[in-house]
Each structure stands twice: as C-alpha cells, then as structure tokens.
Amino acid sequence: MSEPVGPPPPAPHHVYAPPAGYAPPPQGYGPWTPQQIPPMPAVPPARAAGGSALGIVAFVLGLIAAVGASIVAAVAGFQIGIGTGDQLATQLAPAGADFDFALLSPVRAWVLLAEVSFWVGTVLGVWAIVQGIVAIAKNRGRGWGITAVVIAVAGPVIYGVALWGLFATGIASSATPLGA
Q1: Cβ-based burial of 97 (10 A; exposed 0-12, middle 13-18, buried ≥19)
Q2: pTM for the complete prediction?
Q3: Which positions, given as ranges, span the membrane (predicted)?
Q4: Rounded to an integer, what distance in angstroms lies between the CA atom of residue 60 and that of residue 48?
Q5: What whole-number distance in Å separates Cα of residue 75 and Cα of residue 169?
Q6: Across 24-28, 123-127, 139-143, which has the greatest mean pLDDT?
C-alpha cells in the first residue's frame, strides 16, 4: 500500500436546513450559521433628556397652587375672623347646632376670595401634578417635576393649615372678653 501524497481530503460539510421561517443562505457563501442575538442589557438605556422647561413650568404651577393660594386664603381667613369674631364669641352654640351663615354677610367679599383661591389652587395643583408626572416620564426636567408633584400634593394641607390658623387668629384678636 502506498501512502497518499499531499494533505488529507477535507471533512465533509454538514449543512443543516435553516429553522422554519428563515430563508436559506445564499449559495456560494458557505454553510448557514445562526445569527447571534445580543443579550438584553440589565438596565434599559437612559432616555435622551429634553429641555427642562416642562418640569420648571410644573414646579412654578405647583408653587403658585400651594403657596400663593394659601397666602391669599390666610389673609382672607384672618379678615373673616376679625369681621365675625365678636358674633362668633357671643353666639356660643353647641356643636350639634346649625351654623347661622348670616354671620358671614359682613365679610362676604373675603369669603368669596377664600373660595376663589381654593378653586384656583385646586386647578393649578392638578395641572402641576399632571405636568410634573409628564416631565418625570419624559425626562424633561425630572427633578423639577418631582418637586412639583410633591409641592402640589402637599398644597391642600398647607392651604387648610394657613386658612384655619389665621381664621382662628383673627377670631382671637377681634373677640372682646366675655366679661366686658
């Protein structure tokens, strides 16, 4: 037997059919190899940040809703307390008795101002919350948007404390002592 001269013949290529739904590879380019799919990243890529104007506007609206409306309501509450303090102090009604709204007649303009500040603060506060959430989601002033949402959510508490605190202060400063 003689030994073959030259290199050994190449091993036969095993060409497999592509999976269902994939076209066979073009002829002449070699055997089909599946395409490698890159692994999913552990953290999704950060969205491109837009301008921060959306968040800043939400912050300003939240600030006006929480602080501005509360200041207006506090001034109105103090004036209502001063205007009705004497009548409220002399009319010591039990807790279950009906309130006589005619006592508010001399200070109806201040009562209207307090109510208007409530509704304006509510509308601006809801607007600030919605726009702040959009700013957070779109990464367009995310920090401003978070701050706007927090301030707008705290707005009703600030409003109530300011109004009732200065209303009670107005009553206390205008009421005459009971023995006088």
Answers
A1: exposed
A2: 0.65
A3: 56-82, 116-137, 144-167
A4: 24
A5: 11
A6: 123-127
